[in-house]
Amino acid sequence: MRPLPEPTPVSKPFWDALAEHRIRIQYSPSSGRYVFYPRTLAPETLADDLEWREIAGDGTLYTYTVARRPTGPPWAEALPQILAVVEWDEGPRISTELVDVDPAEITIGMRVTPVFCDEPDDGITLLRYRPASGDGGDR
């Protein structure tokens, strides 16, 4: 069994939105930018003005690695595992996995789109990414 995230009171709005196949992250009016990972105070300003806003979730592949050996025993059957960092169009970056793509077709800077992966037995939805139409194959 793979370990799954455990929502905290601070991150719960993010996970609740994923369960509805939506992406909500924090925005700081004092700094005029989106923020991710969920937190209680805005970076830079330390203001307590963070508010949750919905984003489309589209972005650009910032970096990735193809794990051809398991990153741990729970992932022994999930190879290759394509670990990635996606930069959302709104600015922040998220650590994730790429799905529905041939590793040979991946390029830094390619456009990616969200994939909502429901884990019904565990009551959580994970956010993964695949190439946007026309980028790395239409899958």
Automatic annotation (TrEMBL):
Gene3D superfamilies xref list: 6.10.30.10
Top-level taxon: Bacteria
UniProt domain ChsH2 C-terminal OB-fold: residue ranges: 52-116
UniProt-listed InterPro entries: ChsH2_C, NA-bd_OB-fold, Thioester_dehydratase-like
Protein name: Acyl dehydratase
